[in-house]
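Q: Please design a sequence for this.
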């Protein structure tokens, strides 16, 4: 191993693209070599990870998001999910939020951090910001002097309480033990979503509950959880994360400048209102929401009828449901007829067939989108003939409309050639066809 290759010739920003690429590859080679040795130098492994992450962040900034992904695939041996994870580690380290004590790392933790098996090439890009695993990322480290500031509340972690508790473990606890868990202090913060394409309409994500039993094939959250959570995508409660709203500083100046800044996608890695979720978990999350009126907390579920158990909602709770196909429309309209919330919204993402609503006036906002690739489904962008009529109907009913960047199918038709427009979404997306009538009435689409 040529250690000279591991020393940058100067500031990373001063390197040419080719020099920076060579440096990243040299660091990755060193990391792989060290990780293969049982008695490895853990400090150097950690340095490799941080240097690769810094280099990737610099290259992404130079090339832009779309070009960066192509460059990554062509020039590096690691996949984009792994690269994204290392980039987040570099961000965390730069912001002094992780306070990593390298001497306390174990060989196993380094292995999980650095040489996780690559995902299939068609897997959706993900980030630890969405995952919420490990130490959450902080809000923008740059101080904002404009507007009122909500500073983080001090808290101390409780070492004798598990980080996450599965549904099975929760059900085995006594009432007293559950009450103690709900009072677990935490030091985490929201996950920063700026510069991320997955969640465009929220500046933050927050995952006090993770896991889901719907088994939708296009689910990005399951792909992430299967790789990174010990409990995989099994429903789990993270009691220490209930303190995240109080621990994340807030700037009214930034909120005034960017609408998405105030928005927190709550349980982006779960369906909080799934039938399997204990009422105590939901109530605890809503209590934390009510105690943090400076934020807007955005909820989504595919089981909207359960909202009736918790209505009316705090004014800063935006209550939504996912409607990806016509089979969900009736249940959504029936459920929201009785929901009391300041904002009621629809996430039509991915839109896998044309949709017709009869009571769109029940809602205030609609988000329209396609689907990024997952391990089970291909990328999907929606034909104009599908989403445009729904958009116009929404506008006539007074809804605000948000079009995600993954929505549009770009038509490429020529004279004398049949239109190059899909008649239906990919078969893998039509998962409800595999459900029984009882499933549709009482389970998935309820």
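A: Design:
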């Amino acid at each position: 191993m040529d250690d000279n290759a591991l020393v940058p010739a100067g500031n990373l920003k001063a390197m040419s693209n080719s020099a920076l690429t060579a440096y990243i590859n040299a660091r990755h080679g060193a990391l792989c070599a060290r990780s293969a040795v049982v008695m490895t130098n853990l400090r150097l492994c950690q340095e490799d990870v941080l240097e690769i992450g810094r280099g990737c962040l610099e290259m992404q900034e130079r090339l832009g998001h779309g070009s960066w992904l192509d460059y990554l695939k062509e020039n590096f041996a690691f996949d984009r999910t792994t690269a994204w994870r290392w980039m987040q580690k570099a961000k965390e380290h730069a912001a002094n939020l992780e306070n990593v004590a390298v001497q306390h790392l174990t060989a196993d933790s380094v292995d999980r951090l650095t040489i996780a098996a690559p995902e299939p090439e068609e897997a959706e890009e993900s980030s630890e910001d969405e995952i919420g695993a490990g130490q959450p990322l902080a809000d923008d480290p740059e101080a904002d002097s404009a507007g009122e500031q909500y500073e983080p509340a001090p808290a101390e972690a409780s070492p004798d309480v598990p980080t996450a508790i599965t549904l099975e473990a929760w059900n085995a606890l006594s009432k007293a033990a559950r009450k103690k868990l709900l009072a677990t202090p935490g030091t985490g913060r929201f996950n920063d979503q700026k510069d991320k394409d997955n969640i465009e309409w929220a500046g933050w994500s927050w995952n006090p509950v993770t896991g889901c039993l719907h088994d939708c094939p296009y689910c990005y959250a399951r792909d992430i959880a299967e790789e990174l959570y010990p409990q995989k995508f099994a429903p789990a409660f993270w009691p220490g994360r209930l303190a995240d709203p109080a621990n994340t500083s807030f700037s009214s100046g930034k909120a005034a400048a960017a609408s998405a800044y105030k928005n927190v996608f709550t349980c982006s890695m779960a369906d909080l209102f799934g039938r399997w979720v204990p009422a105590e978990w939901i109530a605890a999350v809503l209590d934390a929401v009510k105690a943090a009126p400076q934020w807007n907390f955005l909820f989504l579920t595919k089981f909207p009828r359960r909202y009736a158990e918790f209505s009316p909602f705090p004014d800063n709770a935006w209550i939504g449901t996912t409607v990806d196909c016509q089979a969900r429309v009736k249940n959504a309209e029936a459920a929201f007829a009785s929901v009391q919330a300041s904002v009621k919204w629809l996430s039509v993402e991915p839109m896998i067939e044309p949709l017709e609503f009869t009571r769109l006036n029940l809602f205030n906002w609609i988000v329209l989108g396609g689907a990024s690739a997952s391990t089970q489904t291909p990328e999907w962008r929606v034909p104009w003939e599908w989403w445009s009529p729904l958009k116009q109907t929404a506008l006539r009913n007074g809804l605000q409309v948000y079009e995600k960047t993954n929505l549009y199918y770009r038509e490429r038709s020529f004279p004398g050639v049949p239109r190059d427009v899909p008649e239906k979404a990919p078969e893998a997306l039509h998962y409800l066809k595999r459900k029984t009538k009882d499933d549709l009435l009482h389970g998935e689409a309820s």
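Q: Thanks. Anything notable?
A: Confidence is low (pLDDT under 50) at residues 96-161. DSSP finds 15 helices and 13 strands in the chain.
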